[in-house]
Amino acid sequence: MEKTIRIKRFDPESKNPQAYHQEFKVEVEESSSVLDALITIRESIDESLAVRCSCRGAICGSCGLRVNGQGTLACKTKINSLRGSNGTITVEPMGNMAVVKDLVTDMRPFWEKIRQVTPWLQTTGDAPTAEYLAPPDAMTHLNPVMGCIMCGVCVSDCTALEVDPTFVGPAALAKAYRFVADPRDAATNQRLRDLDEPTGMWDCTRCMVCVEVCPKGVAPMDRIMALRSKGMNSGLTDTYGARHSMGFIEVVRDKGILDEVMLTIKTLGLFNISRFMGLLPVAIRSLLHGKLPKPGPFHKPLPGMHNIRRIVDTTEKMK
Amino acid sequence: MQHDVLIVGAGLAGMRAAYEANAEGANVALITKVYPVRSHSNAAQGGINAALTDRGDAWEEHAFETVKGSDYLGDQDSITLLSQDAGPEIIALENMGVIFSRNDDGRLGTRRFGGQKKARTFFVSDFTGQAILHVLFEQILKTNIPTYNEWFVTSLVIEDGQCYGVVAMEMETGNVQFIQAKSVIIAAGGLGRVYEPSTNALICTGDGMGLAYQAGAPLMDMEMVQYHPTTLKANGLLISEAVRGEGGHLYNSKGERFMEKYAPNMLELASRDVVSRSEQTEINEGRGINGCVHLDCRHLGEKFIKERLSQVWEEAHTFSNVDMTKEPLPIRPGMHYQMGGVKTDNNGRCWDIGGGGWGGVRGLFAAGEAACVSVHGGNRLGANSLLDTVVYGKRSGLAASAFAKGTPSKDIPSSIISKDDNMIKSLLSRKDNKDSVAAIRLEMGTMMNEHLAVYRDQKGMETALTKIRSLRERWKEVPVRNKGRIFNTTLINAMELGFMLDCAEAIIVGALFRKESRGAHVRLDFPERDDENWLKHILTYQQPGADPKIETLAVRMTQWEPKPRVY
User: Fold this and answer.
1) Among residues B251, B298, B255, B254, which one has the least CA distance to residue B278?
2) A108-233 has CATH 2.130.10.10 classification
3) Mutate to test the interface with A, among B130, B149, B240, B304 (most CBs of A within 10 A)
4) Chain A partners of B486 at a C-beta cutoff of 8 Å?
5) Helix B128-142 and helix B12-23: axis angle, to 10°?
6) Considering only CB atoms, which chain A residues are within 8 Å of B237?
7) What percent of chain B has pLDDT over 70?
């Protein structure tokens, strides 16, 4: 069958380098992947099309790009699974990265961020003469996160990175989790302290996009949440993120609803005047649009408050 | 840009060599045409062999089964080193961070693999290669070893029969540079793309073998090309031997478990050449299913399959639309691995340090699939390739750093790049004659898969030789329509094709020369193994402007006399 593939092109060597979209009509088979189509274009229509690719089987991580606006591996995306507008499939380079040429992006910042999380096993004492003993489940637990192939697709679509390029990002944090959760690693506390710093684990906005787009089921956001729990459990409770997380539970236990004003006070601290001033316009607009409950002292306790408290306490005990 | 040791390729062999050379204090660098974790070592799914004495296993058993698997073409002293170093190497990898699967007691667990009676394959689910590759990459980051990522090596620099580095092109800029080194290790992997289809990644284009061959080092046993018994029909991708190791069965169209006929003891776990030939015979004799046979593992149960074979399940689901927990998977033999490669000694040296009776290039080393020590001989056992990469990667890293220490630096002008620079300019300035790199590659691959596959004969191979030489003539004129210098993949493909054509010719001349059937090389016109005349390696030397020169070399035997091979 014939398909129209619309590709975002960029040639840095042209006279006036600017990105543009170009359409190709290409004959594909029922079982073809987007990568098959791109290779057909490169081999028989336009040899100048630049795309990284190697294994064709979703294990090397070379062909990360965007199809119809979403990050994915070209080799793993079957053409017949896509419903583009008018049957046209749009292929673009990954986001949150500079483009080198066409679908090839600059991966250097990606690798630099991986480097930031001290991505190697740190053990103490003399090297053993045999393997380290470790519970089999603890190792099996690491399989999905070791399954990360560093394709960059999560980084491409990360909404937090879009507004803050200094965020270490989902791939590096998933890698960090791989060591924090490894029973052989002896640097857990130091790792968590490092991740507790600005640009670290608290900068994730929990939008879930990385979980959705990851082609290998690594679920980076889930790993980030697990890192936060481990951090708080180890006593790292002095960040806005940690205080927000703990304050959330306290407020609900206290009032049965999410009192945003109280939560803000618990998160920022009562005397953080400058941050409060910054938030004031947002608070007023929200209040006017009915998006905030009446602040603290003005609202009545919910009926059946003791049941809500019971639920919170039971859940806390179960942790 | 100057180093003691420069390693071409950053897969398992390359990074293991780099790690070792660095530990010896050498100034070492890796150069790769991709990023290290993109390397094809990723694709090794099933595991890595080691006979650990504290598990009631013995290196002698592993060694013997490797010798038998090689159809007695493997060098027995090299195989002894391989099996003796295996245990410490597994432990070293575990200590570096590999999350090998474990038993209930917290110690490393094993699974069974083909051609071996004991379960001695250590594994990480079914992505063992990837797991080890990423851990070695972590060690490269930890030790701050520099890597030239996305650089394509165009030639080795040879002065007075000694290698002094490489000329390479940075793909992001198109700049050509000389990178000097006192020793160079070729660890650039296999040549799968010489065939179509192949389980191999698109980057497996025999660059390393081609580079060494063009520089004057001999290639050895290139006729020994492994066809893996289980590959997908749709795109040739690999389905791990682990599926059979964990208990998967093979059936023909009549529902017969046909391996009972060909290998009554080892059944589906006979060595790969045997299983692939059996499948091909079933298919040729009309008992196939659309050119395939069935791999069935429904009886293993959904939980087991999803835990121990998760990637395979996913792969079959994505690429063949088959749910392996509910239906059998159609598979067929497909080109998978090159047992041959750049001839080395037991320390990775590509030259004869004395008395061996072969010639090569001083200062040049090789390891991994690009090399031929030979530990695989006529047929490699499953899960011995990862082992080969780390054991001989380490050995070559040690030897290359020692060689660098004893080698004074040499003045080589940077104008050394002009030959390669001009070659690239001429590639880019060719007239468009409507031919294409992709078309020549496809014709070569299809032709090799027709004439140099599981079964071979004189006539087919002669046809292949004529064809490969005519394709080479076309290659000399083939246009590169993309004229840019930045990330010009067609330009890279054109140069890769040059290496592949050289490798293909070496395969064909080796196969024509070996007038017997051994391991993966089975000739319908010489159906028997002939130990009297052919218990020897075949070395191919490139001769500028002439046909390759062929020499033979005796197989090194220690304690295992050749016997008939029954599984």
Assistant:
1) B251
2) no
3) B130
4) 12-13, 100-101
5) 30
6) 56-57
7) 100
**Taking a C-beta distance cutoff of 8 angstroms, is the pair A61, A151 a contact?**
yes
Domains, chain B, in order of start with CATH, read 2-224+339-414 (3.50.50.60), 230-332 (3.90.700.10), 416-529 (1.20.58.100)
Helix (H, G, I), strand (E, B) or coil at B225: strand
Residue B103 pLDDT: 93
Phi-psi region of B286 (alpha: psi -120 to 50; beta: other; left: phi over 0): left
d(CA A60, CA A175): 16
Which candidate in B98, B99, B203 is best for mutational testing of the A interface (most A CBs within 10 A)? B99
Q: Which residues of chain A have pLDDT under 50?
A: none
**pLDDT confidence of residue A264:** 87
What is the distance in angstroms between the Cα of A7 and the nearest Cα belonging to chain B? Answer: 17
Which of B16, B112, B272, B308 is catalytic? The answer is B272
Average pLDDT, chain B: 96
Could you please report the per-residue DSSP string of B440-496? HHHHHHHHHHHHSSSSB-HHHHHHHHHHHHHHHHHHTT-------STT-HHHHHHHH
A20 DSSP assignment: E
A81: preceding bond cis by omega (within 30 degrees): no
Task: Select the CATH number that applies to the domain covering A2-105 from these four: 3.30.70.1400, 3.10.20.30, 3.30.1460.30, 3.30.565.10.
Answer: 3.10.20.30
Contact A135 B125 (CB under 8 A): no
Judge contact between B25 and B4, C-beta under 8 A.
no
- Give span(s): CATH 1.10.1060.10, chain A: 108-233
Of A54, A69, A83, A151, the C-alpha closest to A111 is A151
Q: d(Cα A177, Cα B258) in Å, to the nearest integer?
A: 47
Name the minimum distance, in Å, from the CA of A169 to any CA of chain B.
18
Q: Are B507 and B223 in contact (CB under 8 A)?
A: yes
Give the residue among A101, A106, A104 at the shortest CA–CA distance from A11. A101
Rounded Cα distance between B444 and B459, Å, is 17
> A115 — contact with chain B (CB < 8 Å)?
yes
Q: Per residue in A88-106, is it b (16+ CB within 10 Å) or e — as a string?
A: ebbbbbbbbbebbbbbbbe
| Nearest residue to A293 via CA among A259, A255, A256, A243 | A259
**Residues forming CATH 3.10.20.30 domain(s) in chain A:** 2-105
Q: Are residues A142 and B489, on separate chains, in Cβ contact within 8 Å? A: no
pLDDT score at A299: 63
Question: Which residue carries 């004893």 as its tokens?
Answer: B406
- Tell me: pLDDT of B65 over 80: yes
For residue A144, cis peptide bond before it (omega within 30 degrees of 0): no
Closest residue in chain B to residue A10, using alpha carbons only = B486
**In A, residues 216-255, which contact B (CB 8 Å cutoff)?**
none
Task: Say what the pTM is.
Answer: 0.95
B272 has catalytic annotation: yes
Collect all residues with Cβ–Cβ distance below 8 Å to A157 and sequence separation of at least 6.
A66, A70, A71, A95, A96, A209, A210, A213
**In Å, how far are A2, A316, B184, B371, B461 from B510, measured between CA atoms?**
43, 71, 26, 16, 10
CB B41 within 8 A of CB B129: yes
Complex confidence, ipTM:
0.95
Distance from CA of A153 to the nearest CA of B (A): 15
* CA A169 to each of CA A62, A165, A202, B461: distance values in angstroms, whole numbers, following the listed order: 19, 9, 10, 54
Over residues A211-245, the pLDDT tens digits come to: 999 999 999 999 999 999 999 999 999 898 999 98
pLDDT score, position A85: 60
Q: State the best of B12, B22, B33, B38 to mutate against chain A, taking most chain A CBs within 10 Å.
A: B38
CA dist B80 and A202 (Å) reads: 53
